[in-house]
Amino acid sequence: APAVPVDASNLVLRARDALRQTAGHERTPPVAIRLEKNLPVASGVGGGSSDAATVLRGLVETWALDIDGAELARIGLSLGADVPMCLAAKPLVARGIGDELSMVPDFSALGLVLVNPGTPVSTADVFAALSLRDNEALPPLPRGIDFHSLRNWLEITRNDLEPAALAMQPAIGRALSWLNKAGSGFSRMSGSGATCFGLFETGNVAKRAAAEIRGRQPDWFVAATRTIASEGADGQN
User: Fold this and answer.
1) How many structural domains are present in the chain?
2) What is the CB-side half-sphere exposure of residue 122 using CA atoms within 13 A?
3) With contact defined as beta carbons under 8 Å apart, do 115 and 178 qualify?
4) CA-CA distance, 50 to 167, in Å (whole number)?
5) Could you tell me the residue range of the domain that residue 37 belongs to?
6) CA-to-CA distance for 173 and 32, rounded, in angstroms?
7) Would you say 235 and 107 are in contact if contact means Cβ atoms under 8 Å apart?
């Protein structure tokens, strides 16, 4: 929490102000917003972007504004490339800088463990350290995504930011190692780091793995969770 900015640079306040600028001050009276942080700051999992998306949706309802999803996504993109994804809150593929979104059907709810060794990583610094910027595009996702098909797909893909982030924060490598020791089917750094995720076949297996890692690394951020399932997909894995 001490690392969360409390001035106008906070994405929650920027979201409020961007929406107010679009709708006009006469329709957007003062509001009180309480921010509860459950994710580490600068951790590569879109925590701030998710906060901004939540504020946008909440204030549209609170202020009874007539703003459609496309306009809200435009406002969100002005705050950050990840905000439109968080507004959608569904399994999707993002292209461009995050503004070209395609929904993914048949995506099951999959068990995940998130591990962050407590080392904030600057996204700008990681991008600045990239040695290659013209890598090949990722292959298309498989049809009908479950634990096995997604793991097989992940095996032939990459996170271009991981080598640069690893060089800057060796603790990321330790987080990946602990996920593998706990039985992760596949482990990788998320976004620009330093959070890493492990893929597990069920939510219960993920919970046991998280408890094991937490017992070994009590000062780390460790959380068991699940992916969001597509509409009509199996949400019980």
Assistant:
1) 2
2) 5
3) yes
4) 28
5) 11-101
6) 41
7) no
Q: What is the pLDDT of residues 101-147, one digit of tens each?
A: 999 999 999 999 999 999 888 888 999 998 877 788 889 999 889 99
The answer to whether residue 237 sits within a structural domain is: no
Q: Of 101, 135, 166, which residue constitutes the final position of a domain?
A: 101
Q: Residues 75, 16: one domain? A: yes
- Confidence class of residue 235 from pLDDT cuts 50, 70 and 90? low
- Whether 40 and 86 map to the same domain: the answer is yes
pLDDT for 118-130, tens place per residue? 988 888 899 999 8
Residue 218 in this model has a pLDDT that exceeds 90:
yes
179 contact partners, CB below 8 Å, separation of at least 6: 113, 115, 187, 196, 197, 198, 209, 213
**Residue 235 domain-assigned?**
no
Please tell me whether residues 221 and 116 are part of one structural domain.
yes
Position 237 scores a pLDDT of 46
